[in-house]
Amino acid sequence: MHPIIECAADLSAVVKQVSGVEPSFMSTSEKEAALVALAAARSELDALFVRVLASADDIAVAHGLRDAAAWLAVETRATHREARRDLALGRGLEAHPAVDHDLAAGRVRTEQARVVVEAVDALPATVSIETRADAEHALLDLARQHDARDLRQIGKRILDVVAPEIGESHEAAVLAAEESRADAAVELTLIDDGEGRCHGRFIVPSHVGAMLKRHLLALANPARHAEDELRDVSGELKPLRRRLGEAFIEYVERYPTDRAPQTAGVNATVMVTLTLDQLLAEHATALLDDGTRMSAGQARRLACEAGIVPVVLGTQSQPLDLGRAARLFTKAQRLALGLRDGGCTARGCETSASGCHAHHDDPWSRGGLTDLTNGRLLCPRHHRLAHDSRYAMTVHADNKVTFARRT
User: Fold this and answer.
1) Contact present, 146 and 154 (Cβ < 8 Å)
2) How confident is the model at residue 267, as a pLDDT?
3) CB-count burial class (<10 Å; 0-12, 13-18, 19+) for 220
4) pLDDT < 50 positions in the chain
5) Considering only Cβ atoms within 10 Å of each terminal Cβ, which end of the chain, N or C, has fewer?
6) How far is the C-alpha of 51 from the C-alpha of 57, rounded, in Å?
7) Torsion 329-333-334-339 (CA) sign
8) Quick one: 309 exposed, middle or buried, by C-beta within 10 A (0-12, 13-18, 19+)?
9) pLDDT of residue 205
C-alpha cells in the first residue's frame, strides 16, 4: 500500500480512538493545548491533501473532466468552488516551496498560505525573482503575528517593505485597478414581492459600503432605543441584522426632503393619494404614485416624518393639499424640543432626545403647523403608535402622553 494511503488510514484510526472522548472534562490548559496542536495538524494535513490534488491531472483525463477538482467535488460532496480553491492552492504551492514547507510544518494556517501565494503572484511582472522571494519570506514571517485577513492587506503593500523604491507606485496601481473594477460593477436591484415587502441586492465600492454600515450601526445603536424596542414579539433580543434592517428603514424614511435629488425641478418624493375621508378615517387605505397601496395610518406617519407628500382629495377628487414646505422641524426647533421635553414624552419611556423623532400633535397631514406648541418628542416606537389607528393617544397636563388600544 502506498505510504500516503497508509497515512490516511492511520490518521482515521487514530482519530477514531478519541472520537468517543468527551472534551468537556478537559482542563482549560488541556483544551488550549489541544486546539493549538489540532490547528497545526490540520494545516499539515491540508498541505498533503492539496499536494496530492495538484498532482491528480491523470484523474481528470481518466474521467474526461476538466480537472481533478471536478471529480473531487462529486466524490466527496464538496462544492466545486471549494474543490477548485484547494486545487489552486496545491498548484500554487508547487511554485512556492517556502510556503509549502511552512504549511506542511503546521507553522501557518491554510488560509494564510493561500493569501501569501496570491499576494506574491499578484506582484508586477517587472519585479525580480529575488524581490519576490524576499516578499514571500517577509509575509511568512508576518504570518506569525497576523491572521489571513490582515495578511491580505499587508500583502498589497509588501513591496514597501522589501522594495520601497517601487512599492508606492505599485500600491497606487493596485488601488486604482481595484477602484476601477468596483466602479464598473456597481449595481442595485429592487424587487417588490407583491406582499408588502421589497427585496434587493447591491454592489458598491468598499468605502461606500463602509460608510453605509457606519451610518446604520449608529442608528441601530442600542443606546438610542428603549429596551422593548430591542426585543421581538417573543421577547428575544433582535439579532443585529434585524436592527440594521430597521435602521435602514429609518435611514430612508427620514432622509431630508430638501436635500433629495430633483427630476425636472421636482424633488424625488413619493406621492400618496387619499381622500379627506380616508385621511381622517381609522381604517382606510392610500394609493402610492407607483400603483401600490398602504394603510392610511402608515401614510399619516410617513407624512409626519418621511419623504412622503400626501395628495389629499376633496369630494370632487380635486387636490386640497400638496404639502407644505415647513414639514420637518428645523435643527433649532429640535434642540428646543429636546430642552423642553428631555426625551420621549411617552409616560414611562426613557429614550433620550437624540433617539427621538419630532412629532406633530395636530398632524401635519391634516394641516398642523410645524411649530413648538404643536410638536413633541417621541421615540420611533411611540411615534409609530401615535399614527396607528388601533391606538388612542392622550396628552396629559404634564405634557406626557399615554397610549391605549382602542376597543
Assistant:
1) yes
2) 37
3) buried
4) 263-269, 306-309, 312, 317-325
5) C
6) 12
7) negative
8) buried
9) 84
Comparing C-alpha atoms, which of 391, 198, 388, 369 is closest to residue 299? 388
Residue 44: partners with Cβ closer than 8 Å, 6 or more residues away: 103, 104, 105, 106
Say what the pLDDT of residue 298 is: 66
For residue 163, the model assigns a pLDDT of: 81
pLDDT at residue 380, rounded to an integer: 86
Q: Name the 3-class secondary structure at 294.
A: strand
User: 75 in helix, strand or coil?
Assistant: helix
- Pairwise CA distance, residues 87 & 83, whole Å: 6
Q: Within 13 Å and on the Cβ side, how many CA atoms surround 331?
A: 1
* Cβ-Cβ contacts under 8 Å for 253 (sequence gap 6 or more): 302, 305, 306, 307
Q: Residue 268: what pLDDT?
A: 40
Count the residues in the chain. 407
Query: 273 and 287 in contact (C-beta within 8 Å)?
Result: yes
The candidate with the shortest Cα–Cα distance to 111, out of 85, 132, 134, 135, is 85
CA distance linking residue 163 with residue 78, whole number of Å:
40
**Burial zone of 351 (CB within 10 Å; 0-12 exposed, 13-18 middle, 19+ buried):** buried
Strand-pairing partners, residue 267, are 262
* DSSP three-state, residue 114: helix
Q: What is the pTM of this model?
A: 0.51
Give, to the nearest 10 degrees, the angle between helix 28-54 and helix 110-121.
Answer: 50
Instruction: Spell out a b/e string for 89-107, using b for 16 or more CB atoms within 10 Å of the CB, else e.
Output: bbbbbeebeebbebbbebb
CA distance 294 to 387: 13
Centroid of chain to Cα 391: 34
Q: End-to-end CA distance of the chain, in Å?
A: 81
Residue 291, phi-psi category: left (phi > 0), alpha (psi -120 to 50), beta (remainder): left
DSSP 262: E
